[in-house]
Amino acid sequence: MKRYGMVTKVLEGKLDEYKRLHAQVWPEVLRVIQQCNIQNYSIYSRGEYLFSYFEYVGNDFEADMAKMVATPITLKWWAVCTPCLDPLPPRAKDQWWSPMEEVFHLD
């Protein structure tokens, strides 16, 4: 199992919409997340920043993320959510969340 932390910004005036969307995540999207070996997935907000945490329990993260990107329902969900986001630079063209380095962990 590997832990991942990611950060992004939310556009001014879009936090309530983002929270509303995530209060009712589409069941199909949740199934894809689980099928891609992600568990304990959480998103937190603090001011204009969003922090996500999840645990990856699979054996091939890149393949599972490619599977997620290739799933039409995921792309539709992202099309609804990403207009709320203001990604942090530097970033790749289609990267909305920036990976974070784990500095400390205690089980």
Task: Give keywords.
107 residues, alpha+beta, Alpha-Beta Plaits, 5-stranded antiparallel β-sheet
Short description:
The chain has about 110 residues and is of the alpha+beta class. The protein contains four helices and five strands, in the order E-H-H-E-E-H-H-E-E. The mean pLDDT is about 95.
Number of domains: 1
**Count of alpha and pi helical runs:** 4
Q: Are there runs of 5+ residues with pLDDT below 50, and where? A: none
> Compute the gyration radius: what is it?
14 Å
Helix content: 25-40%
Distance between the termini: 13 Å
Please name the CATH topology: Alpha-Beta Plaits
Strand residue percentage: 25-35%
Q: Specify the CATH architecture.
A: 2-Layer Sandwich
Q: What string, H for helix and E for strand, traces the elements in order? A: EHHEEHHEE
Description:
The chain contains four helices and five strands, in the order βααββααββ. With 107 residues, the protein is of the alpha+beta class. The chain has one domain: 2-Layer Sandwich (Alpha-Beta Plaits), CATH 3.30.70.1090. Strands 1, 2, 3, 4 and 5 form a five-stranded antiparallel sheet that branches. Strand 2 and strand 3 (49-56) form a beta hairpin. The radius of gyration is 14 Å and the shape is globular. The protein starts with a strand and ends in an 8-residue tail after the last strand. 6% of the residues are buried. The mean pLDDT is 96.
